[in-house]
Amino acid sequence: MGSRIAIIGLGFTPARPTSSHQSYKEMMFEAAQRAYADAGIEAADVQSFVTCAEDLNEGLSIFDEYTPDQLGAMLKPMHTLTQDGLHGLADAAMQILSGLFELVVVEAHSKASNIVAPDWVADYATDPVLNRPLGLNPHYIAGLEMQRFLHETGVTHEQCAHVAAKNYRHALRNLAAAYPAHLEAQDVLHSPPAFEPLHEREIARTADGCIVLVVASEERARRSAAKPVWVRGMGWANGSFALETRNWARPDYVRHAADIAYRQAGINDPAREIQLFEVDDTYAYKELQHLAELGIFANAADAARATQQGQTQLGARLPVNVSGGVLGMGNLLEANGLARAAELVLQLRGQAGARQVEGARVGLAQSWRGVPTTSAAVAVLSVE
Amino acid sequence: MGYRKVAIVGAGMTKFVRRALETPRELAWLAAKAALDSAEMKLDQVDSVVFGSAPDAFDGLHMKGEFVADGCGAWGKPYLRCYVGGGTGVYAIAQGWLHVASGLFDTCLVTCEEKMSTCQPHPQAAFLTIFDNFTEQALKPNLLWIFALEQNRYMHVHGITQKEIALVAVKNKRNALGHPCAQLGAELTVEDVLKSEVMAWPVHRLMVSPTSDGAAAVVLAAEHVAKRVTNKPVWVEGVGWCLDTAYWTNRDLYYPRYVERAARMAYEMAGIREPHKEINIAEPYDPFAYKELHHLEGLQLAPKGQAPKLLADGVFDRDGDLPATPSGGLLGVGNPIAAAGTMKICELFWQLRGEAGARQVPGKPRRGVAQAWGDLMQVGTVVVVGV
Amino acid sequence: MEAQPKNPRGTSLSGDDIKRGKTFLVPYTPRLEYAWDCGEAIGRYLEELKNGRLIARTCHRCKRILLPPRMFCEVCFRPTDDWVYVKDTGTVNTFSLCYVTWDVRRLRKPEIPAVIEIDGASPGIGIMHLLGGMDAKKVRVGMRVRAVWKPPAKRTGSITDILHFAPLKGNQAAARWKRKGKQ
Questions:
Q1: What is the rounded distance in angstroms from the CA atom of residue B104 to the CA atom of residue A5?
Q2: Are C10 and B20 an interchain contact pair (Cβ–Cβ within 8 Å)?
Q3: pTM over 0.90
Q4: ipTM above 0.95, yes or no
């Protein structure tokens, strides 16, 4: 794809466990105002808009209806994807690459605090005939997967706990993160068991927040005063949805998504060519699983060893989730991928303050849509 | 502006029925497979997959797109589900077009599906949740309200009668008699329509499309693939979509300005300056009889307030100057929400290739426009195709 | 060329098929409960409804008075400026007589949903509500109506604190209404 698409604006509200001072519309308006100011544009300049949202996370059917006004999209081309925000970024990229538009806005948010019985909503996504009648809390699917993952890869539970501790500590330097905490691996292991082998602190809690990106064509980006962050590659893929036919240890759809993104970005050796990584860690073990599928490490055991040795923390050779990840920032539902991308944008611009990764030139963002899905998206972003 | 050329090379759909035995995945599979078979293509020739479906509330699934993915051929492939309410069925083709026109993919399989019958005791009840949670739901509104309010406004501003509107139902249900998938093909008179019970005045029962289960799919391909696959590709010449404000009670409902904007976007891409002369077939969205007229005006195929007269003059008949809804539309074929829009795209595909059988519009039509609508009287989605 | 679609698939089930158990059904009642943050604009709107008043927001740039109130102007894309009370009277922009409820039960007496342009808000700015306290046959576009409020003790901070809109006393005739409406 080359340097054809750029992110020229970023706006967000900080991720917080609750956000009762704002309706979802007011939250979106705040993030959009921030993003347009950051990009140095007016809402009227934007030619097309994409929202990533699921009806049942909002509690409104055809949620698309309620998206244009607070983004400045009234009477403009606008549509919703029921996907993660990184899919929205891919959509914006396609709109620009096709030649239709040169300035597109992507938005996603979470008002998870407004869902009274979130596990019931998550359960509603499971197979209604084969799985749902078991009456289990759907987090069990992650428990099953972690069990098989540990068994096949030799990764230990303690190594997974190191992931969580690292990410909660990273969040201490991120004012936009909802769940900063100075924790050690032992603190995570000794948290109450939840969905064995998962313990409570290995499972991301939800948070509210909104993220808006302003995406531009190369020509438009070069006319902008903002420092562009280039979208070098975008990939996304789905795997087998059915629990009965999925590969429990290895989410191959992550690898498929990464292959597409790396090919576009001309990346052959991600661990060498990329300096920072924002990957999904909704459940702590997931970070290790994803690092392996993304080819950052040869296998999950290597990723686990490196993590335990502190090689994936801020300041080390392969910083992973310095934002705090999903664990540290909070589970922002469809906005998780944009939270990962937002961190890359800040880092690549040199705006990450106390958690700046020195010499960051290329970053990778990866998202997963949570249980029971097998859906992932990957973006490779870079400075010039 | 030159765009990468993209064509529809295959189309397929299931029957539209009130209640199907098949699950959402099976419905999607049947349509997707039929589309691939019609193009004599295999799944491994599909580079990307798009799915469209309207409210999750109907199928009884959260993240319905993930569940149905297997049925759409998405395993191991880049997959997106797009969603603009009722506008989805036509918008999904634009979404697929983006995949190929961007140059990232050479082919895209687009499937739209709906299984409304899952929702008990009646799918209508799910529509309560489309209204504003803060300012409207407490009034216990139903979908009929909003259509009836709009139909009344349209009638009032232009002095249109229910009799003129009923003719749309007569035309479309008759057209549907020629469609093998039709749920409600029938030979009716205007009197039959006006005698049917009043649901929400001025809407009578026979002016309303049914709730349905069904799926429809198309295969999109870049030029070099299209020319290999078929000797009659149907080119996507223009795409357009536009979303109006959610504050629908702050707008005058007599005219769908968002359909006009979406249409202008698509016409401009297609190089069409006089749509009523250059378009040979229209498939406007007809969930209610008056909507077809409303949308024909938005599509610039009739002057404001004049669509009923042109209809009465026979202009929109299958053998008229500008056949509208030769498929039989939502009123005749059925309304599995997202799939209905894609059915209209399939219809244009078959019509422009001379394959529409008993529904064939005479005179070798060369250009068609399909349009869908959705949300709170709010979104217009338009695709122009040509051979 | 062969007529399309050829041999379409899909199996229709009848009500009888379900009763006779031709196919299995798996019933499920979801628990989909939400507690939405009203935020600033709607929070105030609902609070004022409880007080028996309708409140709007103004945008000084496009000079519109907006109802339901919002903290942003969707036309100008800027924060709205002031709160302003509007009247609880208005003009019927459109209406329907609905004989079917949201869960598809038949009504003998119709519900009368309407869009009512509220006095004091900008032209064309209306809200949806029900009409009542009148003969359904007498409803007209252009009618002047007035909110009928529930007694204060029965109000909860909801749009239903207004029971319905009824004909404005002393003005039963429809106002003159321009054809062609707004362009």
A1: 13
A2: yes
A3: yes
A4: yes
